Each structure stands twice: as structure tokens, then as C-alpha cells.
Amino acid sequence: MKALLTSLRMIVIAAVLCIFLFPVYWTVTMAFKPAEEWTPTGGKTYWVPDHPTFDNFRRIFGGTPGGSDSFLVSTPINATDSIVTSLVTSIVGTLLALAVGTFAAYGISRYRAGGKMLGFSILQLRMFPPIAVIIPVLFLWTYLHLFDTRLGLILIYGAVTFPFVVWLMKSFFDEVPREISEAAIVDGCSQFGAFRKSVLPLVKGGLATTALFVFILNWSDFLIALVLAGNNVVTAPVFLSQITSAATGEEFGSRAALGVILITPPMLLSILIQKHLVRGLTFGAIKR
Amino acid sequence: MEITTDTTTQAGDSLQAGGVPTAPMHPHRHISRLMILPGIVLLLLLVLFPVVMEIYISLTTWTPTTGSQWYLAYRNWTWFGNYWDGLTSPSFITAAVRTIVMTVAATGVEFLLGFGLALLFLEKFIGRGVATVLFLIPMMIVPAVSGFVFLLLLRTDGPLNTAISAIVPGTFEARWLTDPTLAPVAVTLVDIWQWTPLMFLILLAGLMAVPEDQIQAADILGASWFQKLRHVVLPIVKPIILIALIIRGMEAFKIFDAAWLLTQGGPGEASSTISVKLYREAFQNSQWSYVAALAIVVMIFVSLAASQAIKPLERQQERGA
Amino acid sequence: MAQIQIQQVTKTFGRFDAVQDLDLEIEDGTFVALLGPSGCGKSTTMNMLSGLLEPSRGQIRFDGAVVNKLKPGDRNVGFVFQNYAIFTHMSAFDNIAFGLRIRKRPADEIDREVRQVAQLLGIEEMLERRTTDLSVNDLQKVAIGRSMITKPGIFLLDEPFSNLDAGFRSYMRAELKKLQRELSQTMIYVTHDQIEAMSMAEKIAIMDRGRLQQYGTPDEVYNQPSNRFVAGFVGSTMMNFLPTTLDRSGGDLVLTIPVVDARPVAVHPRDGDGDSDSFTLGIRPEHIELVDPGSSSASLRGTVTLIESLGPRNIVHLTSDGYLLRVTVPPTVRPRVGEAVGLDLDARRVHVFADASGKALA
């Protein structure tokens, strides 16, 4: 009886896993499918690519399709710029949020800066639908000539992920006993010196986790890049959505290829931080 | 495992008998202010100021098409005209209701699925670690990509319909993306796919943190599996469930990426969530001041809902759970 | 109210034998202490008795019936944990009532029973309180009440009082003994504190590294230790051990201690394993008398190094040719540090252990 239940359990888990991973499977296989296999032809769905190819990847990096007739128009697509833009804005935005947020987190954790309200109001920021706040920023940005610039995106990314940094780093700082900084101060350090030399090294792991987490958030952003940029400065997710709107046909394969490139960094990085995922996704409220 | 929503507890605090932390002295007020200064500046500039600006514009009927700069909007002052229009507009109300329904549905399903999965994963089995990591993958998929993927999956001739056709008599040809009733379901489906793993993770962590000896004590006293769940496990896991629901609900309410990429809020406005509606009013209809008012309304609503939702959590903190 | 038989029980985790070939028979209604150092297998044995673990080999019987495969809930045992395992989200009342609620008893019966138990334990006032408001001492009482209420045939307690304050501990020990006698429960009490075991138990089962060392009354365990481990483990001031050589002469064992000026001691043997190359002599501090160094009754001579005054008695520490010894003396005896003394060993109380097996010969 017990063995039966266990096997049943395994089957259910395997089935659920398959269902949940199918979309990923579909994306990856689509990225390697030639144009003829993108949509079912003659009632046949291509569950597994019959003739896998790298064509789609070549295509999104500016290659013209290798003589295939199924491409309706062959305007070359080059996603390189968008990928670079995504990288740059995500990384710098992360650094910005980290810098500002870590200080604030230390202040809140150690000195109760802002009292009870500050922490919660920072959390509240995450509750507003981004679209609600983005519109005035759009005007402000236009006025400041930051619209459609990388700097503009970086600043917003920094601001938007700032709450995450604060709450995450605060939970890490909370775990460092006061005595450590107090000992440093007794040894002659200033408040800031104590922070820098004795506490900061202890939360290196937390810093790394937070950085990776925030990077993933910035990298995944769509709405902000869509609204505050989109012409000259195009991030990869926006580029992905634009591939169709141009007169290039459905381009499923190419979009899937770009999609595969897009999702790989977060997947790899999240393996590194999986221990702290729960902490990050609940704003530090739950620590394992 | 700890749950901290309270900003005033940390290592090194002195605890009195009742479990209430007493804050130590703070002789370094200036340092604390200094540390949060850059953060405050950032927020002021990028959040506070725009919101103030938004309130200002919402009280006018200004749009960029009038040709003047935004700070001159006072020339088109209209007090609460936009607010009235918004609150009485059926499409806004519908969008709001629709978003709430989708949020509740998504969060609810995610919770039930996640909880069920967590229960399945509770006892060790070979490959549990690998399976857990695999389960996290949907969460990590960039929403722009997941929107795209479901566009492919939910095509009338796509794999989902094909798979269902294999099980169901006849051909299953649901028009997920073009049927007004199915479109919002499709969008909800994407959210469920993407975020059930999160619920699963959080709930699994919560379940694993239940003290083993309490379970053993219940065993010895003769409790059945279900009795253990109901009387021992659930009360302990309740705060975590609450946090998970609140956080997920918060995020689900803001759904944009998937909705936009799948259906652009259509057909018509069938799958327009609040975020999508605001986006369309702003960028397709150029109704900036109207949008500003709507945005303010949404923000007020969300703040109220959030402060209400936090209350049971705060009560738990006080009880020293 | 059940007799327990543990027959050849072994529990293995991977390659590690937590419990090996345990044979124990516990009479109905007795208070037995399971004594031993950390890691000796006592908690594992408890878990097998309660049903949380299943023996790898051997059988456990309650009143003759094999219970190896029986679920904990079906065994009718009560278990008190070291860390109470109180249900933190319930009131004290609900905690105690849990066992009856699970069995779907009517509310008025539950109410009656809970109050009765609470009265017995002296916690009626606390019933409505949440467990987070209770002191450690009250929490343990609630834990006991919770296990009692289903009137189990066997009561298992795993170091239940080790987290309590010392004064309260002795109070609880007395209360527990009273309870056990009143209810004639079969009680098994795990502890690493030999004083506790000696004071409370009718019989003590001493374990070390998974094996049963001795099972007997406190008197037997104290005065007739079956091996060196038991001899050294039991007794508040540890037994003195000295190496010795063994000669047999006319049915007696003659022990010669390799110490300067030592006189041989003749000891009457018990049945014991005699096979060993070397032997150890053991004698408790209270069985040595301090005499004049020149006296003929002194088997050994030594020099005083330290005197501990404990009030009702003193402990004199001495060295004898490099060996450290302790002697318990009445409070009036106070030799000076550095003084040379003679030690008169009570030959009837001398123990001999074969070094190879540890077993006692006398």
C-alpha cells in the first residue's frame, strides 16, 4: 500500500513537471525549427523538430535567411544592440540600486532610520501598478531629455528595484549581531568605518544574492523599457515584441531564438541564488 | 525559519519576558539620516515628484496634444472631472472588476496548486532536489518571453488545443486569444503557469519549518494525516500562507506583460487588466490627464487594500507567533 | 499498565548500529530508568518503543503481542519530549485535550477530563492561557498532562526535566514518582543523569554505545556493577581505578597494585570472565578510610593534594605514586595538604575488572 502511494506520488510529480516545463521545451524547440515547422502544416504538429537548424539564431544576428522561401520579407534583424542595451541597463541599474539601497538598508537595520514607516512605505511602492507611476515619469523624462536614453532607463531601474535591495539587505544586516560593529567602534573605527570594514564583508553573500536577484528583475523588464524608450534605445524584451510588428512576417523561430537567449542568463543565475529565492521573492519576510 | 515583517526586531536586541523587543538607544541619529539620504533623494526624484505631478495633471484636462508644456496644465483646470469620468465609466469599472477577479483566480489557483505540490514534496524522495530546481524554471522566464510562448501555445492550431483534442472527442478548437470569454482566462493561465512555482517554494519552505517534534507528538497521540494537517501544521503555516497570498496578489494585480503580448487587452477590452487599460488610454487615446486620475484612484485603492491585508499579519506578530 | 519485552532488538542507520541486540524485560507497572551518556542509544530505543522508528531486527512486545509494525497512535503510549513539543498555536487546554479530541470524545467529557488532569498537575489556572505565555515549568506540566489524558498503558519520558531549573527539577521528580505510583503506570524514563536515575527508578537499564551494560535495581547497579563502564558511570563521586595484577590463591583473588609500598589485597570473586592480561581495581571513595601511613591496615600510601569541603562530607584528593585518588571522609576529618596518609581499602567493597572485556570479577 505504501509502495503504491509512493509510485502514485512520483507519477503525479513527473506529470506536473512535464506540464510546467512544456512551454520551455516548446520555446527551445521552436528556436531550432526551420520555418516550415513553425506552424502545423497539413494537420501535423511538430512536437519534435524534424530538421533542427541554427538558422533562426543566425537570423536574429543579422544574417539573411539562407535561401529559404518561407521568409516573406528578408529585412535583416539584428538583436545584438538590444542585447547589449539590456545588459548595460540591467547591470548599471543593479549597481545603482545596490549602492543606494544597501546604505538605506543598513540605516534602517542598525539605526532604525525612518522608524517603522519607512520600511513599509518602501514596500508600498511595489504595490502600485507600474503603469500608474510611469506616466508622469514619462513627462519628466521628456522634459529632462532622458526619454529614450540608456541613462534614463538606468535611473528608473535603480529606483524600481531599490525597495527589493532595501528589504533584502535589511534582512541580511539583521542577521549580523550588533556586537560586531560595536567591537569595531571600540577599536577606533568611525561609524562608517565599522560599517565598511566589519559588517559589509559579512554580508558579501547577501550582497551577491541581492545583486543577482535585482539583475534578473531588471533584465526581465518589459513595460518600463517599452514606455520610456523604444526607438533608439531598445532592450531585448522590447525588441522581441517588435520583431513581428515590422513587416517581416511571423518570425516565430527567430523570436524563439531570441527568447532562448533572453531566458538563459536568469535561469543560470537563479541556480546560484536558489537558496535565497524565497527570501528575495518575499522581500525578506521569510528566511529559510 | 523566521518571519519578520516588523522592522524593529533584530539580533542583539534585548528581549523582555513577554517577547517584546526593546529598542536600544540610538546616539547616531545623524549617521542614520545620512545613510538613507541617497535613497530618499532617489525616491523623491523618481517617485514622489512624479506622483505629485500626476495629481496635478489629473486635476486638469491637459494632454500633450494641446501643445503646451505640462506645467502650464493649470490652464485647463477641471477639478475632479476626470475622477468622476473615471469612476463612472463602465469600461474602467469593468476593467477594475475584471482585474480583481483575475487576481483572485490566479492567486487562488496558484495557492492550491502550490500547496498540493508542496505537500507532495514534503517527504524526501530520490531526485527531490533536482525536481525542485526544475520547478523553479517557469518563474525565471522573462515575462516578455512567456507572453510570446503562450502566444504560440494558445493558437487555435497550437499544441494545447492539439493535445486536448487527443483526449476529448472531436477536435478541440478553443479560440483562446480571440474569444472574449477565453481571452482573460488565457492571460490568467500565463500568470498561473509562471507563478505557481513561487507559491510552491514558499509553502514548501513553510511546511518544512514545522517543528518535527510537534508532528511526532501528534502521531503518538493518534492523529491521522488529515488531523495533523488541520490542527498542527496549518496553524503554524498560516502566517506564511498569508504573506505568500498578499505578495502574490499584489503582483498579480499589476499584470501587464502577458496580457499585452498575448491579446493587447483584446478582443476589444475583454482581457484588459487595469495596467493594460491605463496603457491604452495613455498611448492609444492620448488621454493623459484622464489616465493620471485613474492611476491615482488605483494607487489609493491598492494602498488601502494593502494596509488592510497587512493587519492580520501584524496581529500575529504581536501575539508572538 | 503493560509489560514490555524487548527481544534482540537492533536498529541500524546505514552502517551505524545505534542499538545492538538489546534484551530487556520491563514488568508491568515498574518505573525503569534508561541511563547512559549521549549517543548510547537510549533515545533510539524510546523511539522504537513509541513507534516512531521500527527495529531493524528483533521484536518488541507489549503484553506479549508484537508491536513492531504498529503505528504510534495505535500503541496506546504516552510520550513526553525533552523540548515539550507543545502545540504552539493552541491554549494549554487545547493541548491537553488534543488526544481526546482526536478520538472524537464528547465535549463535556473532554472538559471534565482536562480539568481533572490539570488539577492533578496543579495547572488549573493556566488552562485558558496560550502556550507562549507559560513558563518552562508549566509547559512541561502541560506536556505531561497531554500525554496522560488518553490513559496510556506505557509512559515514555525522554529527559523531560533537563530544561528545567534545578529546584523545580527535584520537585517534578517527586511529583512524577507520586503520579506513577498512583496510576501504577509502566514508566520508562530516559536520562543521562545518574543521580536522577538512582533516585527515581525501581530498576535501571544502563546503556553505552548501543549495548545494554547492566539492568538491575539501583542497589545492584551501585554495589555490584557488572562492568567497568557501569562502575565508573554510576556514583556521584567517581570510583577510583587503579591498575593491578591478579593471582589466584585458594579461591580468592590477590591483587597487587604496582605502587610503591602497596600491600596485596585479597578479594572474594563473583562469577566473572577471568580471561585477560591486565586488570583494574576499583573502589569507591566512600569505601576507603584514611589511616596513619605507618598503620598495618593501609594497603596504600599517598599524599594529600586538595580537600573539597561539601558540608555533610569532605572529599580528599591524593596522589599515590602518580595515581590520582579520591576519598570521601566525614566533615570532621581534615588532613593538611601535603600530609602523608595511609589508605585502608575495604576488601569487601573492592571491585576487579578484566581490562579486555571490562567485566567485573568481584
Walkthrough of the structure:
- Chain A is built from 13 helices and one strand; from the N terminus they run αααααααααααααβ.
- Chain A is mostly helical and 288 residues long.
- Chain A folds into two domains: 2-51, no CATH class; 80-281, MetI-like (MetI-like fold), CATH 1.10.3720.10.
- The longest helix of chain A has 32 residues, at 80-111.
- Residues 66-72 of chain A have low confidence and may be disordered.
- Chain B has 321 residues and is mainly alpha-helical.
- Chain B has a domain at 90-286: MetI-like fold (Orthogonal Bundle), CATH 1.10.3720.
- Chain B contains twelve helices and three strands; from the N terminus they run βββαααααααααααα.
- Chain B has a two-stranded antiparallel ribbon with strand order 2-3.
- In chain B, α1 (29-58) runs antiparallel to α12 (288-319) and α7 packs antiparallel against α10 (257-263).
- The longest helix of chain B has 33 residues, at 90-122.
- Chain B is globular, with a radius of gyration of 24 Å.
- Chain C has eight helices and 20 strands.
- Chain C is of the alpha+beta class.
- In chain C, the strands form four sheets. Chain C has a six-stranded mixed β-sheet, sandwiched between helices.
- The mean pLDDT of chain C is 87.
- Chain C is elongated, with a radius of gyration of 25 Å.
- Helix content of chain C is 23%, strand content 34%.
- In chain C, α2 (92-102) crosses α3, α2 (92-102) packs parallel to α4 (136-148) and α3 packs across α4.
- Chain C folds into two domains: 4-232, P-loop containing nucleotide triphosphate hydrolases (Rossmann fold); 239-354, Nucleic acid-binding proteins (OB fold (Dihydrolipoamide Acetyltransferase, E2P)).
- In chain C, a hairpin with a 2-residue loop joins β9 (203-208) and β10 (211-216).
- The chains are: A mainly alpha (288), B mainly alpha (321), C alpha+beta (362).
- Chains A and B meet through α1, α3, α4, α5 and α6 of A and β1, α1, α3, α4 and α5 of B.
What is the fold's blueprint, element by element?
The complex is a heterotrimer of chains A (288), B (321) and C (362).
Chain A: H1 2-31, H2 55-60, H3 80-111, H4 115-125, H5 130-143, H6 150-174, H7 178-186, H8 191-199, H9 204-220, H10 223-228, H11 236-245, H12 252-273, H13 277-281, E1 286-287
Helix pairs in contact in A: 1-12, 3-6, 3-9, 3-11, 4-6, 6-9, 7-8, 9-12, 11-12
Chain B: E1 2-3, E2 14-15, E3 21-22, H1 29-58, H2 81-88, H3 90-122, H4 128-140, H5 143-153, H6 159-167, H7 182-208, H8 212-220, H9 225-253, H10 257-263, H11 274-283, H12 288-319
Helix pairs in contact in B: 1-12, 2-12, 3-7, 3-9, 4-7, 5-10, 7-9, 7-10, 9-12, 11-12
Chain C: E1 4-13, E2 16-26, E3 31-35, H1 42-50, E4 57-62, E5 65-66, E6 77-80, H2 92-102, H3 107-121, H4 136-148, E7 154-158, H5 166-183, E8 186-191, H6 194-200, E9 203-208, E10 211-216, H7 218-223, H8 228-233, E11 240-249, E12 252-256, E13 265-267, E14 279-283, E15 288-291, E16 300-309, E17 314-320, E18 323-329, E19 340-345, E20 351-354
Parallel strand pairs in C: 3-8, 3-9, 6-7, 7-8
Antiparallel strand pairs in C: 1-2, 1-4, 4-5, 9-10, 11-12, 11-14, 12-13, 14-20, 15-19, 16-17, 16-19, 17-18
